[in-house]
Each structure stands twice: as structure tokens, then as C-alpha cells.
Amino acid sequence: MQAWLLYSVISLILWGMWGVILKYSNNFYNTVTTYYLSTIGSFATATVLTLIMKNDFNANPLKHMQYPLVAGFFGTLGYWFMVKALEQGKASIVITVTAVYPIITLALSILILSEKLTLTQIIGILMAVLGIVLMST
To answer: What is the DSSP secondary structure assignment for residue 63, as one 8-state letter?
Structure first.
């Protein structure tokens, strides 16, 4: 198995667990508290990973730091609205619907990064969209 695929599968499993635990948290906390506490968990994990990986911030000039900062901004807002949706909706539906965010990534990757898709990939994307439509009805 290629490393990127292994990492993707691990991410899939972790995010699957994350969605259920986040929804369960809504039994005890409102959106603001759930969001805040999970963000603390995210920051703590990111800090530990940075220390373990011995990240050398001096190796990369900070002149391009606006990109990860803007990505964090959009990711945080997306996460906020997903937590809010979980407060009111079923985890099985909310997580599935929000999980098709790669379609937005795909469109922007084609427009901004000039990435190309094969016919098989296009068919897969259409099937994913159909799945979301069927799940949300």
C-alpha cells in the first residue's frame, strides 16, 4: 500500500470516530462549549505532533505563512458550522453531507492549481454527489 493511501485510510478511520464522539458531546455541552473543548484537543494534539516531528520553523521562510493561516480560518469556520449542524441533526447525515467537501476542493484545484481528472475520477465524484443526495433526503 502506498503511504498516501495508508495515511488516507487512517484519516478516514479517525474522522469516523471523531464525528460520533463530537455528536455524543452534544448530549452534555452546547455548540460553543463543544467547539471550544474540541479545539483545545486539536491544538494540544498539533503541539505534540510538532514536537515529535521536530519541526524546524526556520527551514521554511515565513513569507508564505498566509496560506496555512487562511486555510486555518476557513477550516475553523467550516468546523464551527459542522458542530452547529451536529447539534441539530443526526450525526450519520451531518457527517456524510459535510464529508463531500472534497468536491469544493476538487473544483478549486481544477481552477486554481490546474489539476486534471480522469473520466473514472469524474464518475466517482458524481457517484459521491448522488450518494449525498440520497442520504440527505
So the answer is: G
